[in-house]
Amino acid sequence: LGPNGAGKSSVMKILAGTHRSTSGVALVSGYNVDTDRLRVFENLGSCPQFEVFWPNMSVRGHLEYYARLKGISSSKVKFLSRSIAEAVGLGTRQIFNRRAKHLSGGMKRRLSIAISLIGSPKVLLLDEPTTGLDPRTRHDIWDLIKLFNTSKRSIIITTHMMSEADVLCDRIAIMARGNLRVIGTQQRLKDVFGSGYTLSLNIIKGAHEQALDYVKANISKDATIAYAQGRSMRVNLPRDGLNLSDIFRCLINEDALMNGNINAWVLNQSSLEDVFVNVTEKYL
């Protein structure tokens, strides 16, 4: 993750061998991208942000061309191309023989992913794999990525969508101004860089202050009102010093209704978006 201009796509291009680095060393499966480029290509699959197709070449033509480019033996090219096309949902006869210029946006993304999977790479780079796609197609691509996420393959994804990172990734890195600022699991990042918890309350009308007093007295004296309108109220709780079991006991107790006028509640932890803002705001 990272704001525009953070360097996400540049890193992907350097790892893919299409962009020279100005300093440092980049390794893919232990091979230097500058000095062991052929070894890198053997272990790497790359799906760029923008599709690069020949408009008049078919799905089949693209897959067979890249299979030969990857060094797949001639006797296996046709079988491999058809197998990968079927795996990504492009295997029907009509689509398999369709020219690239006649593919929908979702089909083009599937073809890009299929090309990147040729040769069973150990490392797969996906640069903004679902940008510009409708929600239904986006979820289909997510399912496709999950299908090829195995213990023998590392997948690196760049994205601007927090939901995409949350759904697909085991670890999340956040870049800003060309440097990696943080990396960790979603839960770890939320624990360290999140703003805390948000308590959404449904209360008896006009009892905002009474509800806040109850929360301060029983949950955290540092609680603050983030939003209050009618019977809805949202309270910010600090990140540190909270005991979740105590919060639950306090809110399911009859005192919450009797003394706090709280008749329904939902507790949420900081979102990944909160983490992103907190980490990157000082670099903007």
Automatic annotation (TrEMBL):
**Keyword Nucleus attached:** no
Q: How does it sit in the membrane?
A: Multi-pass membrane protein
Q: Which InterPro entries match?
A: ABC_transporter-like_ATP-bd (IPR003439), ABC_transporter-like_CS (IPR017871), ABCA (IPR026082), P-loop_NTPase (IPR027417)
Give residue ranges for domain ABC transporter.
Answer: 1-202
The stretch of residues making up the signal peptide is none
Keywords, in A-Z order: ATP-binding, Membrane, Nucleotide-binding, Repeat, Transmembrane, Transmembrane helix, Transport
CDD domains on file: ABC_subfamily_A (cd03263)
Q: Which GO terms describe its molecular function?
A: ABC-type transporter activity; ATP binding; ATP hydrolysis activity; lipid transporter activity
Q: Which family does it belong to?
A: Belongs to the ABC transporter superfamily. ABCA family.
- Protein name from the UniProt record: ABC transporter domain-containing protein
Q: Does the keyword Transmembrane helix apply?
A: yes
Indicate where this protein resides in the cell.
Membrane
Check the record and name the Pfam families matching this protein.
Answer: ABC_tran
* Annotated GO CC locations: membrane
